[in-house]
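dumping this here before i forget
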Amino acid sequence: MIGYVTLGTSDLARAATFYDAIAAEMGTGRMMELDTFIAWGAPGGGAGIGLTKPFDGQPASVGNGVMVALEAKDRDQVHRLHDIALANGGTDEGAPGPRGETFYAGYFRDPDGNKLNAFVMEGPHSAQ
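structure:
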């Protein structure tokens, strides 16, 4: 149902380094790029992420309670994505580990403070 998610940034070049590294681990890249906007994903693929300088010209701000969840292939990729985020200017919001019986996730923020996680569903109700 979700086509893409757009997050705000005040430093597009810095944020692009962060998202280029995350996207590369997930096997995708940039699909659209303008002076004030970059989108990662694949046309016809799963939901992508867009990053933009706010249209109103005001500083980008983080939405309280807003989070983007990135579906990983397995636990190892959850750990790699968490590590990549921290190595590219992100901050830790919760080390990778189980959250309940069937959910495994690691949480982090991008250089602008937007919250993301990498997760995998496991067990009898997962679509592996």
